[in-house]
Amino acid sequence: MEERARLIEKLRRIEALHLGAATDGERDAAAEGIRRIKERLASVAPSDPPVESRFSIENSWSRRLFIALLRRYELEPYRYHRQRATSIMVRLPRSMAKPLWQEFVELDSALREHLDAVAEQVISEAISADTADVKEVRGQLGEGG
C-alpha cells in the first residue's frame, strides 16, 4: 500500500506543477487550481471557441488516465460510432490542447513507471525471477525454425 500512496502523491505533485502550485500550501489547494482551469476554459470561449480534437491513445491505462483528466476539467470525451477504441474526441479551446497534453504526458509517465515496476515484481515472484529481455542473436530472420 505504501507504493500506491507514493504514486498518488507523485501524481498530485505533477498536477500541482501544471496548476501553478509552487509550495506545499499551494499543492494542498489543488482544488482551487482546478477551479481556475475551469474558469479559464469558460473565459477563453469567446476568443478561442472549443474545437473538436482527436487524440489516439493505444495503452488502456493511459487512455483511462486521459479520460479522467478530461472529466476532471469538465470536458466531455466521446467517440464516434465505428471509430477505433483508441480514439478520444473532445471539444476544447485550441490554447488548452497543448497544456492539457503536456500534463497528461507527465502523469502518464509516472503511472507507466509504477505499473511497469508492479508488473515486473509480480512476474518475478509468480512466474520466473529472470525477467530480462530476450538476447539478440546474429542471423537471418526465419533461420533455426
* Range of helix content: 55-70%
Structural class label = mainly alpha
Number of helices: 5
Span from first to last CA? 45 Å
Describe the structure.
With 145 residues, the protein is mainly alpha-helical. Helix content is 57%, strand content 10%. The chain has 5 helices and 2 strands; from the N terminus they run αααβαβα. The chain has helices spanning 2-18, 24-28, 30-43, 60-72, 94-126; strands spanning 50-56, 87-93. A two-stranded antiparallel ribbon has the order 1-2. It is extended and about 60 Å long.
Characteristics:
single chain, 145 residues, mainly alpha, two-stranded antiparallel ribbon, 2 strands, 10% strand
Write the layout of secondary structure elements.
Elements lengths: L1 H17 L5 H5 L1 H14 L6 E7 L3 H13 L14 E7 H33 L19
Antiparallel strand pairs: 1-2
Please sum up the structure shown:
By secondary structure, the protein is mainly alpha-helical. The protein has helices at 2-18, 24-28, 30-43, 60-72, 94-126; strands at residues 50-56, 87-93.
